[in-house]
Amino acid sequence: MSESTEKKMVRLRSSDGEVFEVEESVAKVAKTLQDMLEEDCADAVIPITCVRAPILTKVIDYCKDQVMISSSSSTTNNPNERTEQERKAWGQKFMEGVDSSTLCELLVASNFLNIEGLLNLGVDKMVSMIQGKYPQEIRDMFNVVNDFTPEEEEEIRNQNAWAFERDPYYKKRSSSK
Amino acid sequence: MFSSGETSVTANNLPDDCLLIVFRKLESCSDRDAFGLTCRRWLHIQNSARYSLQLGCLYRPNITQEYVRYLPRLLMRFQQLRSISLAGCTELPDSALTWLQLSGSELQSLSLDCCFGLTDHGLTLVSSGCLALVSISLYRCNITDAGLAVLSKSCLGLEYVNLSYCAFVSDHGVRALSMGCRKLHVLIISYCKSIEGTGLRGCSRTLTYLEADSCLLTREGLLAAVSGGGLEYLNVSSLRCWSGGDGLDGIGSGLASRLRFLNLRLCRFVGDESVEAIAKGCPLLEEWNLAVCHEVRIRGWQAIGSNCKNLQMLHVNRCRNLCDAGLQALQIGCQKLMVLYLHGCRQSVGPQRVTLATATIMDPNSRRDSSVERTQLLMQPVRVQIVLFGDSVCSCIGERGGESERGVMLFDNLTYKSRSRNAAINVRVTQGLGNNRRLSPNEPRDAHSSLLQRDSRPWEPPTQAPLTVSLHFGAEKFRFVAGFRRHRHF
């Protein structure tokens, strides 16, 4: 963890007991932590009860990056500033190699900590994993147990064949591929 | 808490909020269905995120039993529906709508087009259950005034009502509707042969859109239709002839001063007097269809030229009495005119008279044919004449430039020179869209190239339909329609 004598530091404890020390500005990327810090609990160690250390590491990496972008974005000719395209590429790289269970943990963490950008990255990743898959493939991927009886499943399939929906957002299907 | 080491987190730990965001981002129906089939919890998320339902029984009468069986199940499953379309359930019985009494309170839009099996009783069920209804479409339904009256008493928020081809609806029903639903915004009564229009007397000012194509409106009925004072769109094409004067001058009497679109197509009896009154009384007109209005003569055209300063589109197809002087009056007066539908105007528009630009369009078949045939085609070019008003296009400089090698390019990218600008203009040719349609912004921009791509058969110049020619100057776009016959010069 980065040490700095000038900047105010915040300590976070993961669910498995590891303590992380980060700059306050980094912690404040998470809206949940920002709210807590504004109520002034600077000295205490903040327990992040539903996030394990490896996941919290990744979350902190994300927050640090956000701070780096925003802190330098006010200056002109900022080398860290990103175009829309670069941001997309960065997001993809950040989520690269994340498996489905890590993804779920990241989603839970970003939801709990209220980090919108990270949540969106996770959601987009999950969407891309689901697209074009059969139900059984989705179950296998995300460890979901099929709790339908075969009859129920059959009935839902039959109903789906009758129920058309306007394509949401009127987008063409091919555009998502 | 989770133990260290191997994780035990699965999608089951994801909160509903997360799953819902994921679900909403799935774009294709098959992905959404696969999501719902994963497990009960995910199905629940799919069901609760579903706002619209269209029953997939499109106009297949032999499957009545099936959809009557599935409809209640689907409605039970999707509890949040805002929009339901049962269009094409031709034999749907009234009883199938019973559920609406219990669970239709959120419903805003309902389409019952071509539900021939429904009666007033069905409409009563809708009325008692769907108090939040904003839009209802009853195209070709066998409902009567009584059903419409019940609907008008309970669904007070209705803004859009389509009654076209409802043969049993008369002015009584229309009166009930126009008195009850004071937010009515769009009313479509085309081909309702029992409606004379008097039921619209005193209609709400919110009524801005009235479509009454091929109705048997009377003179009083037409006055009643504009009595609300809010109309911006009025379609009374194919109006039946009245005896003693055309009576359409009522449109120009002041009550329709907000009118922006007026369709009088096939009102053959419309005379100069009415055209003059309308031109003066409706200064905001942007599009006016006078196709096949044979009685409009020079006085009418001059009145349009001197009064309709906002006119952008004018349909004068097959007007027998459009003369060059009339065209000139339009040209001088209507400075905003961008599109003129001239198809089938016999005595007008000699190229040497009012034409400001002439385009020669080659048959694109030349791309496919042998060189001999191509030469032949080039000798018999299909000529399209473009009359431009209010802007600066003048001569065609690339009429045959690069003709032999370029093949279809000749057709697609003729180069013109504009009078005021030196920019080259691309010309695209699209097949006609029919005389009676208003061009919508959704019309494909480059219908021509899609025409060629979609259809691999040799392109035939349309013999009846008008040809649309679009000129692009950078971002600006103008579209023109001219009638033409194959191998025949104007």
UniProtKB/TrEMBL annotation, chain A:
Pathway: Protein modification; protein ubiquitination. Pfam families: Skp1 (PF01466), Skp1_POZ (PF03931). Residues 8-65 form the SKP1 component POZ domain. One of its GO terms (biological process) is protein ubiquitination. Residues 117-163 form the SKP1 component dimerisation domain. InterPro entries: SKP1, SKP1-like, SKP1-like_dim_sf, SKP1/BTB/POZ_sf, Skp1_comp_dimer, Skp1_comp_POZ. Keywords: Ubl conjugation pathway. PANTHER family: SKP1 (PTHR11165). Part of a SCF (SKP1-cullin-F-box) protein ligase complex. Involved in ubiquitination and subsequent proteasomal degradation of target proteins. Together with CUL1, RBX1 and a F-box protein, it forms a SCF E3 ubiquitin ligase complex. The functional specificity of this complex depends on the type of F-box protein. In the SCF complex, it serves as an adapter that links the F-box protein to CUL1. Belongs to the SKP1 family. This is SKP1-like protein.
From TrEMBL, chain B:
Residues 13-47 form the F-box domain. Residues 443-458 have a biased composition (Basic and acidic residues). InterPro entries: F-box_dom, Leu-rich_rpt, Leu-rich_rpt_Cys-con_subtyp, LRR_dom_sf. One of its GO terms (biological process) is SCF-dependent proteasomal ubiquitin-dependent protein catabolic process. GO terms for cellular component: SCF ubiquitin ligase complex. SMART domains: LRR_CC. Residues 432-465 are annotated as: Disordered. It holds the Pfam family LRR_6. SUPFAM superfamilies: RNI-like. Signal peptide: none annotated. It comes from the Eukaryota. PANTHER family: PARTNER OF PAIRED, ISOFORM B-RELATED. This is F-box domain-containing protein.
